[in-house]
Design a protein that fits this description.
This protein is mainly α.
Length: 150
């Protein structure tokens, strides 16, 4: 009997040369058909840059989440500006965008393993006040003592 060879599963394709990949993949453009000179495009680029500094992005899907968070931020800022100028804006849309942005960033933090520092325990929190209070008390006490000696 002839043996049938199983197909090769998950065979990694070699990575394409930079000249064969899109400008978006190579990082030369942020979005397709956008020249990047408008104020909104510059703001989007600034947010993407800031998020890239905050997160260690290693996969394409993480990069897509990062861009999604940046776009949600820009849209949210535009709506918030309308409210501040006294123009009509859909408050439900602002609230929904805030929730979507929070969930997108939470997903991104989870995926890159960045859950942030653990909050201090109640003992650490109270101890931080104790040191400041003791320092203030000591400085005031020493100043009063020096004034009395002179």
């Amino acid at each position: 009997m002839d043996q049938i060879e199983p197909p090769i599963a998950n065979k990694a394709r070699p990575r394409a040369k930079p000249s064969a990949r899109s400008k978006i993949t190579n990082g030369l453009k942020l979005l397709d058909n956008i020249d990047g000179r408008s104020a909104i495009a510059r703001r989007l680029r600034d947010i993407v840059f800031g998020l890239e500094q905050e997160f260690e992005i290693t996969t394409e899907s993480d990069q897509l989440l990062l861009k999604q968070a940046a776009v949600l931020s820009v849209i949210s800022e535009q709506l918030q500006s309308r409210v501040v100028r006294g123009e009509l804006a859909d408050h439900r849309q602002i609230i929904n965008l805030a929730g979507q942005l929070r969930r997108t960033l939470a997903t991104l933090r989870t995926r890159v393993g960045q859950n942030g520092p653990a909050p201090p325990s109640i003992h650490e929190y109270l101890a931080s006040f104790g040191h400041r209070l003791n320092d203030d008390y000591d400085e005031g006490f020493l100043a009063d003592a020096e004034g009395d000696a002179g």
